[in-house]
Design brief:
globular, Glutaredoxin, 6-stranded mixed β-sheet, about 220 residues, disordered N terminus, alpha+beta
């Protein structure tokens, strides 16, 4: 289950994500309250895919624990990022992931950072969305997660929260996002914002610690 902190889909508003701190607080896995809402799986795009390798079985298991999905496909973006998904990923989604990470790396280099700034460092899981529209009715594929430290906040949906993405491993440079059928720029944004936490973890641990938990405020982009 999962989490998105976009209050509306308007471009003027900031997309927030609940990442590592929420993972740590929810180690027991998704709550029963946040039941998955499934739609029809879209038809696969023509992308070269392969069966998911066993080398990262622990990471795959963690993604499946939080999402409730089975990740059967693996692909590589043109830039070299690894994508593990529930269905064959759309080429537009792969390109959007590359753009988002590329924008992040350029900003990070301007800040003098040098670690984990290659597409090939990253693994992105694409899971089924628990919802495709936000409370305002705008297209917003999100995942649901147990509320944890966000319980009682404006994001609490009755024991769970919706999020655009979730960092699964800072060491492994892995995060999960929801499957999209359009709005590819939104995927680029989510890839950049989830990647910010990972880049900060490896380059600026003080700023990472201040910004990993959005329950105390703060939003993306962190690096500008």
């Amino acid at each position: 289950m999962r989490t998105n902190l976009r209050r509306t889909a308007r471009a003027a508003l900031t997309l927030l994500t609940l990442c590592l701190a929420l993972v740590a607080a929810s180690a027991a896995g998704p709550t029963a309250t946040a039941q998955r809402r499934r739609g029809e799986a879209r038809q696969a795009a023509r992308v070269e895919t392969r069966q998911v390798g066993r080398t990262d079985s622990g990471l795959v298991a963690r993604a499946e624990q939080y999402s409730g999905d089975r990740f059967n496909f693996e692909a590589t973006t043109p830039g070299g990022a690894r994508v593990v998904s529930v269905g064959r990923p759309n080429p537009a989604a792969l390109g959007a992931i590359d753009r988002g990470l590329g924008e992040l790396f350029a900003v990070a280099r301007r800040h003098g950072y040098g670690a984990r700034l290659n597409h090939s460092d990253y693994t992105i899981f694409i899971a089924r969305a628990d919802r495709t529209r936000d409370s305002a009715g705008a297209y917003s594929p999100d995942i649901a997660l147990g509320a944890a430290q966000y319980a009682g906040s404006v994001y609490d949906q009755g024991g769970y929260v919706y999020a655009a993405g979730l960092v699964l491993s800072t060491q492994g440079c892995a995060f999960v996002i929801a499957e999209h059928e359009r709005s590819w720029q939104r995927i680029a944004n989510v890839a950049r914002y989830e990647g910010e936490h990972i880049v900060l973890y490896h380059n600026d641990r003080r700023l990472y610690s201040k910004t990993a938990d959005h329950s105390r405020g703060g939003s993306h982009p962190i690096l500008q």
